[in-house]
Design brief:
It is a single chain. This protein has two domains: 138 residues, P-loop containing nucleotide triphosphate hydrolases (Rossmann fold), CATH 3.40.50; 52 residues, Guanylate Kinase phosphate binding domain (2-Layer Sandwich), CATH 3.30.63. The chain has eight helices and nine strands. By secondary structure, the chain is α/β, with parallel strands linked by helices. The chain is globular, with a radius of gyration of 19 Å. It has a five-stranded parallel β-sheet, with helices on both faces. Adenosine-5'-triphosphate binds next to α1, α5 and α7. Keywords: ATP-binding, Cytoplasm, Kinase, Nucleotide-binding, Transferase.
Length: 205
C-alpha cells in the first residue's frame, strides 16, 4: 500500500515546525521531507538538516531539470520539495510530511488529490507577531515583511482538510497527532471496501 502524504502549512511563526517536530518524535512512520531553499541559513540552521541550502542559480537549474515535486517563491526566497524526497518513499509505503506554504500545497493537491492537508492558525495576530519576535532569529525588516504577508496566507485556510488553532501548544500537538492517526485509519477502511471484502463476508455463499 502506498504511503500517505501529509501537508502542513501556516503563516510564518504560527508554530508549524514546533508542532510537527513534537508529533514526529512520537511517530516513527512519518518521514519529514527536507526542502531546498535559496534563503540564507539562520543562526543554528544546518545544511541537509533544516534545509538543503543552495544558490538561486542552483535552484533555477533544478526547476529547469524538472526535479521539483512543488516549488514557490515564499517571502522573496525560493522554496521547494524535490521529487526524490517524496515519490520513492510513498512507493515504499512510507508516510511523508511536507511543511510548505499554501502555494506549494495547491500544487501538491493537484498531483496527489488524496493528500491530507492541515493549516495552522495562531490564536491572534498579536500572538503571531510576538512569536516571530520571541524566536529571535529574524531581523525587524524580515519580521515586518512576514507579518504583512500573514493575512493573505491565512486567507487560504479553507483550502485545507483540517485547521488547528495553535493557542495551547500541547492541545495543538494532540490535534495534529490525532489527524495523522485518523487519516491512516480512514485509508485502511477505504482499502477494505475496495477489496470487496465486506460484500464477500455478507454474501450467502
Ligand atoms: N502554542 C504556542 N504558544 C506560545 N509560543 C509558541 C506556541 N507554539 C509555538 N510557539 C513558539 O513560536 C515560535 C515560532 O514557532 P515555529 O518556529 O515552530 O513557527 P513556524 O510556523 O514553523 O515558522 P516558520 O514557518 O517561519 O519556520 C517559536 O519560538 C515557538 O517556540
Ligand atoms: N512551497 C514551499 N514552501 C516551503 C517549503 N519549505 C518551507 N516552506 C515555507 O516557507 C515559509 C517560511 O519558512 P522559513 O523556514 O523561511 O521560516 C513557511 O511558510 C514554510 O512552510 C517548500 O519546500 N515549499
Amino acid at each position: 500500500m502506498r504511503g500517505t502524504l501529509f501537508i502542513v502549512a501556516a503563516p510564518s511563526g504560527a508554530g508549524k515546525s514546533s508542532i510537527v517536530n513534537a508529533c514526529l518524535g512520537r511517530d516513527a512512520n512519518i518521514a519529514l521531507s527536507i526542502s531546498f531553499t535559496s534563503r540564507a541559513p539562520r543562526p543554528g540552521e544546518r545544511h541537509a538538516e533544516h534545509y538543503h541550502f543552495i544558490s538561486e542559480a542552483q535552484f533555477q537549474a533544478m526547476i529547469d531539470a524538472g526535479e521539483f515535486f512543488e516549488h514557490a517563491r515564499v517571502h522573496g526566497d525560493w522554496k521547494g520539495t524535490a521529487r526524490q524526497s517524496v515519490e520513492p518513499l510513498l512507493a515504499q509505503g512510507k508516510d511523508v510530511l511536507l511543511e510548505i506554504d499554501w502555494q506549494g500545497a495547491r500544487q501538491v493537491r493537484e498531483r496527489v488529490p488524496d493528500a491530507v492537508s492541515v493549516f495552522i492558525l495562531p490564536p491572534s495576530r498579536a500572538a503571531l507577531e510576538e512569536r516571530m519576535r520571541k524566536r529571535g532569529q529574524d531581523s525587524e525588516a524580515t519580521i515586518a515583511q512576514r507579518f504583512a504577508a500573514a493575512r493573505e496566507e491565512m486567507s487560504h485556510y479553507g483550502e485545507f482538510d483540517y485547521v488547528i488553532v495553535n493557542e495551547h501548544f500541547d492541545n495543538a500537538v494532540g490535534d495534529m497527532c490525532a489527524i495523522f492517526t485518523a487519516s491512516r485509519l480512514r485509508k485502511d477502511v477505504q482499502v477494505v471496501r475496495h477489496a470487496g471484502l465486506i460484500t464477500a463476508l455478507l454474501s450467502d455463499e
